[in-house]
């Protein structure tokens, strides 16, 4: 019994002594403040909590996309992208070169026709002037015309029209004569000179690409007797080149 009372007293004494030591540990600033007050010196307390929070905020911000892209781990991927872009440029350049070669090969098979050796009778007969012209395929391959005609007019008034038959076959360098009669008035025959405007179209399909090729004809035809022999002659002045590719170039570059 006595031992129990002594033990309880010791426990109570121990619990009463502990709060003083804990209070001293929990409030160190109190001792410092008291010491500072007793020495008479001013103590400045710096609060570093704000700067620590700022560092924490900066550390929590994610890095930029550019920074992530340029990290060493992405270097192989960047090299692959560069190689891919270079390969695409080489492929485009190669395709352009192939296209150019294909166009050059196709140009070897471009075809057209020409009108040459315009001529007339010695003189009009019974107010009829006969015009003759040779239609020639100057290329090295045969050509089949799908359409063709020539129109003659004067002052906007139609005088004559020649229509070529469908699927007209022309061998290389072999002329096909075209003849038509133009009726003149008494005044035109008596004037010993007449000028006609000539328009026409010749069409065919390209030998390789099978694209339709349309060749236009425009020019003037002067018919009159020459002083040297007093016979009627025909002189044609073309306004367009007979080669359709040349016509296209002249249309794109009129100067």
What's a concise summary of this model?
The chain has a domain at 114-252: Sandwich (Immunoglobulin-like), CATH 2.60.40.
Largest sheet: 5 strands, antiparallel
- Given as residue ranges, the uncertain stretches (5+ residues, pLDDT < 50) are 1-10, 12-38
Order of helices and strands: HHHHHEEEEEEEHEEEH
Rg calc: 53 Å
Question: What is the third-level CATH name, the topology of the domain at 114-252?
Answer: Immunoglobulin-like
**Assigned CATH superfamily of the domain at 114-252:** Immunoglobulins
CATH class of the domain at 114-252: Mainly Beta
Overall 3D shape: elongated
Strand segment count: 10
Instruction: Kindly report the average pLDDT value.
Output: 76
Distance between the termini: 134 Å
What is the CATH architecture term of the domain at 114-252?
Answer: Sandwich
Structural class: alpha+beta
Strand order of the largest sheet: 5-4-8-9-10
Q: How many helix segments? A: 7
């Amino acid at each position: 019994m006595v031992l129990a009372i002594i033990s309880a007293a010791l426990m109570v004494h121990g619990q009463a002594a502990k709060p003083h030591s804990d209070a001293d540990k929990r409030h160190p600033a109190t001792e410092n403040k008291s010491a500072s007050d007793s020495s008479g010196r001013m103590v400045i307390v710096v609060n570093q909590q704000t700067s620590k929070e700022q560092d924490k905020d900066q550390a929590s911000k994610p890095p930029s996309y550019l920074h992530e892209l340029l990290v060493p781990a992405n270097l192989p991927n960047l090299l692959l992208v560069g190689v891919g872009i270079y390969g695409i440029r080489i492929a485009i350049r190669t395709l352009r070169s192939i296209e150019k070669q294909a166009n050059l090969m196709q140009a070897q098979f471009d075809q057209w026709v020409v009108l040459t050796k315009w001529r007339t009778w010695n003189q009009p007969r019974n107010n009829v002037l006969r015009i003759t012209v040779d239609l020639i395929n100057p290329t090295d391959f045969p050509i089949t015309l799908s359409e063709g005609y020539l129109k003659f007019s004067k002052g906007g008034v139609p005088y004559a029209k020649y229509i070529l038959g469908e699927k007209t076959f022309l061998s290389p360098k072999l002329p096909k004569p075209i003849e038509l009669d133009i009726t003149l008035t008494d005044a035109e025959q008596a004037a010993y000179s007449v000028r006609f405007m000539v328009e026409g179209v010749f069409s065919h399909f390209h030998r390789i690409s099978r694209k339709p090729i349309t060749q236009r004809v425009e020019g003037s035809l002067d018919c009159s007797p020459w002083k040297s022999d007093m016979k009627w002659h025909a002189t044609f002045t073309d306004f367009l080149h007979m080669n359709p590719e040349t016509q296209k170039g002249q249309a794109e570059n009129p100067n």
